[in-house]
Amino acid sequence: MSIHSNLEHIKSTLPPHVTLVAVSKTKPISDILGAYEAGQRIFGENKIQEMTEKWEQMPKNIEWHMIGHVQSNKVKYMAEYVTLIHGVDSLKLLSEIDKQAQKNDRVIDCLLQMYIAEEESKFGLDENELNELLQSDEFKSFENIRIVGLMGMATFTEDKNQIKKEFTHLKSIFDKIKAQPIVNCQLSILSMGMSGDYELAIECGSTMVRIGSSIFGGRS
Fold first, then answer.
1. Residues 182-192: pLDDT tens digits?
2. Calculated CA dihedral for residues 203, 27, 109, 177, nearest 10 degrees
3. Distance (Å, rounded) from C-alpha 207 to C-alpha 205?
4. Strand extents, DSSP E, the chain
5. What does pTM read for this prediction?
6. Strand, helix or coil for residue 4
């Protein structure tokens, strides 16, 4: 199967309100161009240097999403162009994004990463930490970031009930926060679901899915 036909197939399974992020990490420019030529404009990378090199070489109407864990000291390399930062899980990181966005005269959209899995290896905030962050004076003082949604990754398991429970939990937190008037926070994106579980994620309310191997094939 070609990248083009893989993309066509996946897009045909997605409802109109769901955004597809093509996860292009580790993939060469030629593969990304193949997806671009097939109409894909949103790509997700997990290493800032690699994403920046690709941004420099690729057409400028691409949206680049940072989907990996972000180190504060590397924010400056992507502040000029990144469209959405997915894995934001601390005030310290938000503060750095705000600072670098200001230097570039931009407002950068972010998703707050929620910890919903039963695995120690995942990053993210729990519900109390989320509320503390959103209510803090420091958060309210930021002028160059905007929280546009939440994201979370389910436990890596075959147990569909477990995954569904975690996705449903994240959706309930999303609905609660969305209903409150909070400075710097206008939630429209609920990002959950990857190649293995995106259909279940959409059933549970996801509006953004991150798919890599089903488009580009397995990691080389």
1. 999 999 999 99
2. 30
3. 6
4. 19-23, 42-45, 63-66, 84-88, 108-114, 145-152, 185-191, 208-211
5. 0.95
6. helix
